[in-house]
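Re-run with default settings, no changes from the original entry. Doing this only to confirm the output is reproducible before filing.
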Amino acid sequence: MTTANGTTPRVSMESVIHLVDEDPGARDRLDRVLRRAYPPCRDYRDADDLLLRLVDDRPGCVLVALRTPGMAGLRTQQRLREAGSTLSVIFLGDSPRVSAAVGAMHAGAEDFLASPIDDDTLIETVQQAIARDRRRKVRQAARQALRERLARLTPRERETLEAVVSGLSNKGIAEALSISPKTVELHRAHMMHKMGAGSVAEVVKLYLLERPVGNRQRTD
């Protein structure tokens, strides 16, 4: 994914894992396993503790133990999304019961691991979750960069952009906007420069990045 000026959005290559479990012993064991591949691990007692102290914007994931009674653990994913976080959430269950896995997935989990958890499986699952979050952050950064460039366009340049995306020629744009073809050329040149685009195809691609077709939403 590239930004409006053709560069890849800057997203940290470093990652961090957030461990949410009321059992300190369980958190310590997970921490030891994960530090083989991912040194930065942060521990939290519960979802409230996580949300209170979550200020790290590096790519990562959240491991949430479902040992806590009730729905507290399952609400973590929803509360993270409400806070604007893109972090992937993996739920860890104490039993392989299907109901636990179904409840976790309905709550928005990207994965569910039942105890006993194989170390290699845990590490692989975390690697995949972090990769998904990194891709989400790159797309998020690209959209933000595009919004900033769109904000720099004058009203007439924005109209020209929308006309170009709709497939109108310079002559068609001139007729639609009641201006001369020469003026269209000037607006178009300024718009292309501000958007950081070298071709009409690039302009269309960038515009659709900000205004996706239909209601399609990508999650990875």
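The first helix runs from residue 24 to 34. The CA atoms of residues 43 and 204 lie 44 Å apart.
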